[in-house]
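Task card 7
Instruction: Convert sequence to structure tokens.
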Amino acid sequence: MRFLVTGTAGFIGFHLARRLLRAGHEVVGVDGLTDYYDVALKQARVAHLAALPGFSSHAFMLEEPGAFMALMAEARPEVVVHLAAQAGVRYSLEHPEAYVSSNMVGTFQVLEGCRAHPVCHLLFASTSSAYGGNKAVPFRETDRAVSPLTIYAASKLAGEAMAHSYAHLWKIPTTAFRFFTVYGPWGRPDMALFLFTRKILAGEPIEVYDHGRAVRDFTYIDDLVESITRLIDAPPPLPGAAPVSAADTLSPVAPYRMVNIGGGRPVSVAAMIDALEQALGRTAQRHLRDLPPGDVERTEASPDLLRDLVGYVPATPLDTGIPAFVAWYRAHYGTGA
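Output:
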């Protein structure tokens, strides 16, 4: 099968593309290789993929008029997985325009490409930040999500809405998924686990927000990719089909649904740091700080719909996933034992 995956130089896009290539599929990759974080890390991911048969790479920004449309006309993929985005809650407070351009205009270009060159399934990455100010946990896909706390969350909600409208108008089978704090080897340097690892190994203090009380539903990257690959084979049906369960978000007017990808086993940030200290064999210098604007105290996914759809729920514990990340980090950056 031929896939077009946006964001293949990114953390999640890299892992998904590698999984698909190793399964014998063809992957057409797109990435803008922005300098939001270390470009060398992005280039290393692309180089790793380039060594696998069936991969082709294209470097351009999705919001560039006509670029994605031309690639769709050339590649004619059967499935598009749209993972490219401007990420980062705190960065959005300083650079909101990047989120409008990448997450809204870029997503529009992807939708236009899928309209002009129909696909069997479009899958679109959203975020748990979409739940915003919701207080009830676990976060269920059937909960109203109308109180985003940052332009990042708002831009992803806008992407969900645009994708639904295109699914309705052009009958594009579309699955949107909301990710929950994804971590693992080849991770993003702006994420807490990566930042903490670098600083602890350098003997520098780490800033721990909400005094370590914040709770996150950490999702190991292999579990996330397993969930996505299973969802690829479960495109939403046209209106009129019966929902798979009471948890289903299948639209009554479009072949569209939204799915959480998270295990529903939240852990405090303090406990995550404890596990990281154990894996590193070092003790962190913790500087406790208040919760910054835009952050939430707790995230917790309801995994019911994911389980109902594909019979799978992320389950890798931190005491397995964090040592795997640390082993990769030491090998990649040559930090030794």
